[in-house]
Each structure stands twice: as C-alpha cells, then as structure tokens.
Write a structure and sequence with these properties.
Radius of gyration: 20 Å
Structural class: alpha/beta
Distance between the termini: 40 Å
Number of helices: 12
Shape: globular
Largest sheet: 5 strands, mixed
CATH superfamily of the largest domain: ATPase, nucleotide binding domain
Strand content: 15-25%
CATH class of the largest domain: Alpha Beta
CATH architecture of the largest domain: 2-Layer Sandwich
Number of strands: 10
Low-confidence stretches: 1-27
Helix content: 25-40%
Number of domains: 2
Amino acid sequence: MNEPIASASVASEQVTSEQAAGRHAGDRQLIGAIEAGGTKMVLACGYADGTIVERTSIPTQDPAQTVPAMIEWFAGKGVSALGIAAFGPTGVNPSSPTYGRILQTPKLAWRNYDFLGAMSRGLGVPCGYDTDVNGACLGEVMYGAAKGLDSAMYITVGTGIGAGIYAGGQLIHGMLHPEAGHITLPRVPGDQEFECVCPTHSSCFEGLAAGPAVVKRYGVERASDMAEDEDFLELEGTYIAQGILNYLYVASPQRIILGGGVPDHAPKLMARVRAKVLEFNNGYIATPELDDIDSYIVQPACDGNQGVLGAIALGAQALQQA
C-alpha cells in the first residue's frame, strides 16, 4: 500500500499578499496563476511550495472584457511570474506560431486570440502556459496525489473529458496536446441508440460519458442527479473504465487520478471504475500498481486546487527559465 500523500497547503482567501510576503521573505517570489475555464477565470497568487495566499474568480466573457480585468487584478500584487492553465484547444508548442493562442474553441470571441501574449505584455513578467487539464495534472504531480512519481495521468470527467499526461519529468505534448476525451469507445450493449453528444464523433468517450451525455441520456437537469442510480453507475463505470484501460495500455502511468464533476458527485463510481478496469484487463497487465488498485486509480488530493496549483508551477518554471 502506498503511503498517503499530503495536500498542498492553502491559506485563507482573507490573507492579503502583503501579509503573505512578510511570511515568505528572502528569495521566495510571489507567482500569479490563472485557471482559465470556459465559464470562469480563477485568479490566484502563491508560492512555488504550493501555498496559495489569495484567489478570486471572474466570469469568462469576451477577451476585451476579461483580459484587462485580469491584468488589473494581478498588477497590484507584485507577482514575479505568471502561469496560465487555459481551456482548449490551444497552442502549447513554443516553436509554433499558434503558441499561447486559443484555437478552434466554440467561444468564437476567443478563437485565435493570443492569450499568452496579451497577459505577458500586460504584466511584463515571465509567463508559463499550458492547457487546463495539463495544469491540473502538473498540480497533482507537484503537490498532490502523484507527488514523487515519474509518471502520472490526470483525467477529468465533467462538462467535457480531458487528460493530462506527465512522463519523464514533463507534460506530454505532440502535434498539439492530448485530446484524450475523443478516443473511440465501443458501445455498451443496450446503449447503441443513444445519440453521441459530440458534434464531431459518433462514439467518442466525451460524447458518451461526459456530464452533458449523462443529462441527455437520462433526461435529468444535472449529472449529479444520477449519483445513486444503478444503471448510471454500471454504464458510466463501464465507459470510464474502457477509457482508462486504453490510456493505461498506451501511456503506462504509475498512477491515474480521476477527477471532474461527474465522479466528484457520484462517490460510488470510483469503486465501480476500479473493479471494471481489473475485469477488462483480465490479468493481461500484471504489476504491483494494479495489485493495489485502490492506490492506483485515485481521487485528486489538492482539495480542488489542482488547476491553480499547476498554474503556479507553470509560472515557477517560467521564472526559472527567464
């Protein structure tokens, strides 16, 4: 059994940056963080040890409204660097002309917007940049459930499905970033007639198992309304386990962290997913990690702050490289 891992410390939101600076004197530098979502922007300041000293959130409106408001909030904090964990798809290759730009998002006002450039110019500090789910993965690696491991995967099942992969001391990128929510899954018997909610694919993980799919399939207002329903637990657990097994075979992470609104609001789902991963694997992969499945597929350990903490880590990296 792996030893429990302590979460990063999170100070009260009432702690001012000036008070925090007094406690973090010397060479400790304050870092700004943005967890940029399609609905809201979470803004925070903290330190590279994972201490969050101040945070707020603002609605995600169009860039002309949202970006100046964020620059104004950070401008009075004295941050030495900024990390951005952005909604995607977005450019994450520093050598690409699309680096730091929001790409083919349905939020049309943000499409092709130079998010990184605007924040960098507005604050004049080094900036780190990646996706929101990669940021959450990095937060769990640096401060949470994957601390001390060489490889890990963070999966979020919520409004959409995404995953961040950490291996060899870095987040994995390729042509773009992993689009793990759009792998094709076989339909569970009896679910063939359900119309996949993804506008692009007919049978992808996100279109079958994300929150909007749950709402559409069962005719409820929120996915959390199905948290105790046996049919939901069996079907959702099957789809999530299929996705995890594909990731496990390809990336072979040392630990998988499963987060997002759907599993967070359905506590019984985690046990179902673990059992089905072992069932579907059928003994093919035999490792000590899978022998201790309860410590292999785990919940996030950053008290909901993994995205912000990952953004702080991205800012700390940018500061080191400056």
